[in-house]
Structures are given as C-alpha cells and as structure tokens.
Amino acid sequence: MRLSSSSALLGVACSLFTWCARASAHAPTPCDFKGLSVGDKATPAQIMKHFGVEKYNDSEAEWAKAQNAPDYWEHMEKVGPSNAAEEIFWKMGPSCDKKSCEIPYGVTVGSGASPIDVLVFISFDKTGTIELIDISFDSTQWDDVLALLNTKYGDGWRTEESPMMVGKYGAKESLEFTVTELRHRTPGTNSKTGDTCTLYARNIDKIWEHSTSPIYRGFLEIKRVSKNF
C-alpha cells in the first residue's frame, strides 16, 4: 500500500494493523518443530527425509553390536548408563528403530552467522503417529534458544526456578546451577489433525554432566496429549 496523508486511508491502515496484531496475539500455539508435529503420521524414512537425512542406521542392530563390545560394561560403569547410551548413538549417527528416530547432529535452529546445533529425538506409536519431539541444545545458548521459543510458540510460559547440583558421574565434585523450567500455559494444537500437546523446556536437563559435547544441555519437549482415556 502506498503511503498517503489522507486521514481516511490512515484510519483504514490503523484498523488493519490492529486486526493483524490481535490475530497474531490469538494465534494458536503450534505443536511442531520445523514443520513436523506431534499428531502427524510419518514413517522413519519420511521423518529422516524431513530433516534432510537420506541415509540412516538401524539403531537396534547397532545397539546390539555396541553392547557386545568387550569394554562396554566397564565403560558404562565409568560414565553412567545414560552417557554410555548417548555415546553409542553419537557414533552411529542418525538412526531409527520401530519406535523412534534420533538425529544427534546436523540439525540447526536460528539464522545468521551462528546457528544453534540441536539434537533431535522423535518417538511414534504403532500407527506411525508422532507422540514426542525432544530437542536438546547447549545450555550456554539458553538465552538465544528462549528468544526462538518465544517467537515460535509465544511467551506464555509458567516459569519456575530452583537450584540444582550437576557433577561428573562417579565424582564427588559438582557445580550449582539455577534450573529454569518453562511450561506453556496454552496447550499447543496440530491444526491439521486437531491433536493437542504440552510444551516443556529446561535450561539444564539432568544432575550428571554429559560425556559427549555439550556437557551441559537444555531441552524442549513437545508431547502429544493422549486421547485414550
């Protein structure tokens, strides 16, 4: 629209702006990450292709191989079960089984010269309906991620803060962090299927350091609300 000094045109422009602002403020909270939503149906191949992954591993087969390695159990005792599992998934790269897919690297969020690397985990049921999308990221980038979360899902979060000690598995030393938990007040909606979701985010995910980088991680969890009651 060309700018005009006419009061009539100015009034119309203001009315349009007000309507747009209200529409934006009342837009439904989404349930998706990069266009893939809980409630959608997708095969593992479709999920991986959505994120640009053409080739991926069978995580069940790779997991069985890793557990049969001679030093696996000894290493697990050293770094902890969850870290040992993460190391396996990092080495196998993008992978899927009958219930989930994981992309440990290669996906980013944000724009500009320094996009933020994220780890993507997606689980689905027997029908191929996506139940959970979990996004992990470096805790040091929490402020940047929070800005993206507010832009994508709106800033209607219920916020809680509490202290938590985080240390290396098996060691006595630990550091104190302030954990920020965000729970979205408005349930998300999949506009295509009508499914709803909860959105939950934290800047620190657990009491142990990760043994693969980044050692301190935050996450966003998008979880489908079950209709089976």
Describe the structure.
With about 230 residues, the protein is of the alpha+beta class. It has one domain. Helix content is about 30%, strand content about 35%. It is built from 6 helices and 12 strands. Strands 3, 4, 5, 6, 7, 8, 9, 10, 11 and 12 form a 10-stranded mixed beta sheet that branches. Strands 1-2 form a two-stranded antiparallel ribbon. Helix 4 packs across helix 5. About 25% of the residues are buried. The N terminus is likely disordered.
Order of helices and strands: HEEHEHHHEEEEHEEEEE
First CA to last CA: what distance? 52 Å
Number of strands: 12
Q: What's the shape?
A: globular
The averaged pLDDT comes out at 87
Q: Poorly predicted ranges (pLDDT <50, ≥5 residues)?
A: 1-24
Helices, by number, come to 6
Task: Determine Rg (CA atoms, Å).
Answer: 21 Å
The helix content is 25-40%
Query: What summary fits the major beta sheet?
Result: 10 strands, mixed
Structural class, please?
A: alpha+beta
Count of domains: 1
Strand content: 25-35%
Quick recap:
With about 230 residues, the protein is an alpha+beta fold. Helices cover about 30% and strands about 35% of the residues. It has six helices and twelve strands.
